[in-house]
Specification:
Elements (H helix, E strand, L loop, with lengths): L6 H30 L11 H13 L2 H25 L4 H12 L4 H4 L1 H7 L5 H22 L2 H6 L2 H29 L6 H13 L3 H10 L6 H30 L6 H27 L9 H21 L3 H10 L5 H30 L8 H28 L4 H11 L3 H13 L5 H16 L1 H12 L2 H11 L3 E7 L2 H15 L6 E10 L8 H18 L5 E7 L2 H11 L4 E5 L1 E2 L6 H6 L4 E2 L2 H11 L10 H9 L4 E5 L8 E6 L7 H12 L2 E6 L8 H13 L4 E4 L6 H5 L3 E5 H9 L10 E6 L2
Parallel strand pairs: 1-2, 1-4, 2-3, 4-7, 8-9, 8-11, 9-10, 11-12
Antiparallel strand pairs: 5-6, 7-12
Length: about 750
């Protein structure tokens, strides 16, 4: 017997046995010591099952277990409501705000009080609050980093006028509103000045992050209007937070005179951050120039700056969030550096911690307190004042400085967006005891309403000012051209699709139009680096267009719903052909996938081939991924789906015809011959071409124009060498489905394949 073969097993068993026996010995001997120490055994009454249940209940109520259960519930609820809002073309932040109210006493607490008391007991709210405050500090740090101060320096003329008017007008109206509601709604012992200042600042705030996302989603970022409104919002953000810092100082001190020292310290703090800390951070950031990562010591430096800045402003008396905002604003202005740092922070801040703040706000919001018509009328009056001050104030000021009515109203609608920033202000006021539960609930409703109305207001403004005449002229002008739209998600995919589009249109000269479109998830971008992101996405496309001497129009859009935006642009653009890559998200179409925000990925051809050979189930018995199926279902033009295997050019093209419904492929083969001099081989796979006079006439007409460019192939058996000798295969979507369903041996050897679906 070869003991060497089993020596590891023998050693393992021996070690376990010997040391287990040793532990048993010491435990038995140790129990004899209990008698000497007069220790009485702790025996619980009741059955083992009862003891287990008692222990389990204790574990459930442990502070850490309770906090983890709260976080899981909050994140899932926030993502669900965020997804619903995204589907109705609303910012996801609205859904997260609603999720907070739903989990609070206004809904769950009212109808499921026992569950609410179990999940959110009063003694646990302190932990939730502090964790949410950490999330807010990180969020304000990101907001500060997303501000492009260079834009303010270069384009601040009209924007600052509009921005400051959009603050002072609602601020004054807020003071006036306070005069009418102070006696009824101000908490006992709160001075009118403190109450009025918080009402005024809540009327004046604009949610810069939400506004920036809406500008991106509506493709306004490269327009003059987009630049003005982003600059307005940035100036508004800085000004509003400075005013808020002063208001907090006044409220805490009790009077303006008493707050002078706090304000002086705040000014000294700002001076120190700008003149000393900012140059130091710039030198630190310069050490990272050209690198794709940030070293841990540097991360530590910037996080320490954030924490010390937040600590300083909290100690001074103007709130830690102002310090976090300031720390972000003075970060090195290098776009790449800021992007790298934001990527490190925002997933934890926005996905994990920030929803805790929404729910904590919801737990404070008791809409049930508004239990009579008078209170709801007061809430309506507050909303009217907020909209009148911010929307009308911004729009009229923009019109006064010379901007046309459509853009002025658009600026007003965007500046009226309050979102998360409003909730931050309201919670600060609530924590300071300035706002009562009733007025707090009314102002939360106002924040929701003004944010929710932004999208519909923009749509209504566009509807009013839409020029039907110009639209009709554009359609008429474009109808004479063969228009190809290619949509891609990766830069290299765009380059490949452009080469394919060029093969279809090369010799059409002025009778063609090619548009390269990239629709990117809005969450992948930041307000300040949108241009750099777009440039990187289109870099390969632009280079390829120069190589091909091809004029191409680029179209970029930030989106919360890529599928809907792609189909909408395709259907409204009067295109003749849409080209896309075959893509797949593992969770696309499932609720989990939508909640977690998975995006479409390009399939690796090897995975595709393994699937059809029975080695995987990536398609779930479908010839296309869910995303592609939705595009095919909702578009009303032909769609070409490319399965790419190192495609270069369509010089040799193979077109299998399996049944009469595939004959439309010959029109695309004809285009490739006319524009690319492609060599086309038609495979009569079902033996139906030889007996069809119409098709034979079509082939003959092609031969007359381009002799020796099209060949009819009647072989039943297709060899691997034959498939490998071609650059491209054209196939109908129906025949492609049949190849997938039958797991055809072709699929392991096919060249790049263009699956064409006719509507």
């Amino acid at each position: 017997m070869n003991l060497g073969k089993y020596k590891n097993l023998i050693f393992y068993i021996t070690t376990i046995a010997v040391f287990s026996a040793l532990m048993y010995y010491f435990i038995i001997e140790g129990q004899t010591l209990e008698v000497k120490e007069n220790i009485i055994a702790n025996t619980s009454s009741g059955s083992t099952w009862d003891n287990f249940l008692e222990s389990f209940k204790t574990n459930l109520h442990h502070p850490l277990a309770l906090l983890l259960a709260q976080i899981v519930t909050i994140i899932m609820t926030a993502r669900l409501f965020g997804w619903i809002c995204m589907k109705i073309k609303q910012p996801t932040v609205i859904g997260e705000m609603i999720a907070g109210i739903v989990l609070g006493p206004s809904l769950v607490g009212m109808y499921f009080p026992e569950f609410s008391a179990f999940l959110f007991p009063k003694e646990s709210l302190g932990n939730l609050q502090f964790l949410s405050q950490i999330g807010l500090i990180l969020f304000m740090y990101i907001v500060g980093m997303e501000l492009d101060l260079s834009v303010l320096r270069k384009k601040a003329h009209d924007a600052v006028v509009i921005s400051h008017a959009s603050i002072i007008i609602p601020f004054a109206l807020g003071i006036g509103l306070s005069y009418f509601v102070y006696q009824e709604f101000a908490p006992d012992g709160i001075q009118f000045t403190s109450f009025a200042l918080f009402i005024a600042i809540s009327m004046s705030i604009t949610a810069f992050p939400v506004l920036a996302r809406i500008v991106q989603e509506r493709n306004l970022q490269k327009t003059k209007l987009g630049t003005i409104v982003i600059t307005c919002a940035a100036a508004d953000d800085i000004t509003a937070w400075c005013i808020l810092a002063a208001v907090i100082a006044i409220v805490k001190a009790g009077s303006f005179a008493s707050s002078i020292y706090v304000i002086i310290m705040a000014v000294a703090y700002v001076f120190l951050m700008i003149k000393i800390v900012r140059p130091f951070l710039k030198r630190v950031g310069d050490l990272q120039a050209g690198k794709n990562t940030i070293s841990k010591p540097m991360v530590a430096i910037f996080f320490l700056t954030l924490i010390l800045s937040a600590y300083a402003t909290e100690v001074i008396g103007i709130h830690a969030l102002f310090g976090a905002f300031m720390a972000g604003a003075i970060m090195p202005e290098n776009t790449k550096f800021r992007t790298l740092f934001i990527d490190k922070v925002e997933d934890v801040a926005l996905v994990l911690l920030l929803p805790l703040f929404f729910v904590f706000t919801g737990l404070r919001t008791q809409i049930g307190l508004l239990n009579d018509s008078h209170l709801w009328m007061t809430a309506g009056f507050i909303i009217l004042t907020a909209v009148l001050g911010k929307f009308a104030g911004s729009a009229l000021t923009a019109r006064f400085v010379g901007i046309n009515w459509k853009e002025s109203l658009t600026i007003g609608a965007l500046m009226n967006t309050r979102g998360l920033m409003e909730l931050i202000v309201l919670n600060i006021g609530y924590d300071l005891g300035v706002l009562s539960p009733e007025i707090f609930a009314m102002l939360v409703i106002m924040a929701l309403f003004t944010t929710f109305m932004t999208g519909p207001a923009l749509d209504f403004i566009n509807f009013i000012f839409k020029s039907k005449k110009n639209q009709d002229e554009s359609v008429q002008d474009n109808d004479s051209k063969y228009r190809v739209l290619l949509s891609f998600d990766k830069p290299e995919s765009g380059s490949t699709l452009l080469k394919l589009a060029h093969n279809f249109t090369h010799k059409m000269n002025g009778n063609k139009s090619i548009t390269a479109m990239n629709i990117a998830p809005v969450d992948e971008m930041h307000a300040y680096d949108i241009n750099e992101y777009e440039e990187s996405q289109f870099q390969n496309v632009i280079e390829t267009s120069h190589d091909l001497n091809l004029e191409v129009t680029t179209l970029f859009k930030a989106s919360t719903d890529i599928e809907s935006d792609l189909t909408s642009i395709t259907n409204k653009g009067h295109y003749d052909l849409l080209l896309i890559m075959l893509g797949k998200s593992m969770y696309e179409g499932s609720l989990l996938g939508r909640l977690l925000g998975f995006t479409t990925k390009i399939i690796n051809p090897e995975k595709l081939l393994n699937t059809v050979k029975g080695k995987g189930n990536i398609f779930n018995n479908s010839p296309f991924d869910d995303f592609t199926l939705q595009i095919l279902d909702k578009t009303n033009i032909p769609v070409g789906i490319l399965v790419e295997k190192d495609f270069k050019a369509a010089d040799k093209v193979f077109v299998p015809i399996f049944n009469l419904s595939d004959f439309y492929l010959l029109e695309y083969a004809k285009r490739l011959i006319n524009n690319n001099n492609s060599q086309i081989i038609i495979l009569d796979a079902a033996g139906q071409i030889r007996n069809n006079i119409e098709v034979k006439e079509l082939i003959r007409s092609i031969e007359q124009v381009a002799p020796n460019h099209i060949t009819l192939y009647n072989e039943k058996k297709i060899e691997k060498e034959f498939l490998n000798s071609h650059d491209l295969m054209l196939i109908s979507s129906k025949s492609w489905k049949n190849l997938i369903d039958t797991k055809s041996l072709w699929l392991s050897d096919i060249p790049s394949t263009l699956i064409i679906s006719n509507p």
